[in-house]
Specification:
Blueprint (H helix, E strand, L loop, with lengths): L17 E7 L4 H4 L3 H16 L4 E5 L4 H8 L3 E5 L7 H4 L2 E4 L5 E7 L2 H4 L5 H4 L1 H9 L2 E8 L6 E2 L4 E5 H4 L10 H12 L3 E5 L16 E5 L2 E6 L7 H14 L9 E6 L20 E3 L2 E6 L4 H12 L4 E6 L1 H4 L10 E4 L22
């Protein structure tokens, strides 16, 4: 069987045009407990914010459609799908495009972040269900990972974290070279930049979408802290050192722009939550970023607005999402518009996606 790279597909940057955003309604009661209602409200606020700029499809149980419609309004479509959890960045597909106007989806092996949560069989089947619904070309990747563990500049460079992809709970016995080869085969990348560390107590084992992301080709946003007593300080500094010495797939040295780390917050069990301003969603014409109710919110807003000129920056309260273990980026998954990648001198193909959601 051929790979996406062999077939001409590649992973576009998140700022490329989208046809829609995929989300899933919180449903794992043992995860959220008494905070489930607040989590659902917070997800709805993110969905409404994104829906101002692009279509949103919310996956849910059939009996939740009426509730979602009331909370989110007509701009958010609902699709009944069996779910275990509500993190479509990780359980959903990674979408790819080619230069002929085709859309593809990669179905990674999903094991609930190293079998941290059970059951996860329905979420393991979610990527394939979304791919089939979009009528995209389907690829099953022989690698355990999640969408939040990889980040692309759209020009052949991936950012990843060693702590995640080389973890024994994901791909035991596989070398870094083997994992990198599979990442390149299934994303079309030609270079992988490996950062050493994720955040302390991050339930994803250190996803890249909490510590660094591209703002545009050659420019990386990276989280940092000046508090030398913070256990994340050395980790984030180690990431900065790698980024500042790295080049991308085009041979450009990376310019690094730092974002402040939000202040320490603990969950109900006394565990540090993985708060991060890096964990934002890039919508068509906008950035949907987290707000944590602290002074650093304004600093982060200014940095992100400066790095994404021409996009409206929308802050959405995110603490009620973080109690579940992730952020705004974690609960969203963009579907790129394949027509945007067809050279202008070629005829654009027919629209591949439909509006069958109800």
């Amino acid at each position: 069987m051929s790979t996406p790279r062999e077939d001409g597909f590649f992973m576009p940057a998140e700022w490329a045009p989208h046809t829609r955003c995929w989300m899933a309604y919180p449903c794992r009661e043992e995860l959220w407990g008494e905070r489930l209602a607040a989590a659902r409200d917070a997800y709805a606020e993110v969905a409404k914010a994104v829906a101002r700029f692009e279509k949103v499809t919310m996956l849910c149980a059939p009996e939740e459609i009426a509730e979602i419609s009331l909370k989110c309004g007509a701009g958010v479509a609902c699709v009944p799908v069996p779910l275990d959890d509500s993190w479509t960045r990780d359980s959903g597909p990674t979408f790819l495009v080619d230069r002929e106007g085709r859309l593809a989806g990669v179905d990674w092996i999903f094991n609930a972040w190293g079998e941290r949560f059970r059951p996860f069989d329905q979420d393991a089947a979610l990527a394939r269900a979304i791919i089939e619904r979009t009528e995209a070309v389907a690829y099953s990747a022989p690698l355990v990972t999640e969408g939040g563990a990889i980040h692309s500049d759209g020009e052949g460079t991936l950012l990843v974290v060693e702590q995640t992809l080389l973890n024994e709970n994901r791909n035991p016995g596989r070398s870094r070279e083997e994992v990198e080869g599979l990442l390149k085969d299934y994303t079309g990348a030609t270079k992988v930049v490996w950062l050493p560390c994720g955040l302390v107590d991050d339930e994803t084992d250190g996803h890249i979408d909490n510590v660094a992301c591209f703002a545009r080709p050659g420019v990386v946003l990276a989280m940092t802290t000046d508090d030398k007593d913070d256990p994340n300080c050395e980790r984030l500094q180690a990431n900065l050192e790698v980024l500042r010495s790295a080049t991308d797939a085009q041979g450009r040295p990376l310019e690094v722009v730092t974002l402040p780390q939000p202040k320490l917050r603990l969950d109900d069990e006394g565990r540090r939550m993985a708060l991060s301003y890096i964990n934002f969603y890039v919508a068509n014409g906008a950035i949907i970023m987290p707000e944590f109710g602290e002074s650093a919110d304004n600093r982060a807003y200014d940095v992100i607005a400066a790095q994404f000129p021409g996009r409206e920056v929308v802050q959405v309260p995110a603490l009620d999402i973080l109690y579940g273990g992730g952020g705004i980026h974690c609960i969203t998954q963009q579907q790129p518009d394949p027509a945007a990648f067809v050279p202008e001198d070629e005829e654009e193909p027919a629209d591949l996606e439909d509006d069958r959601e109800t």
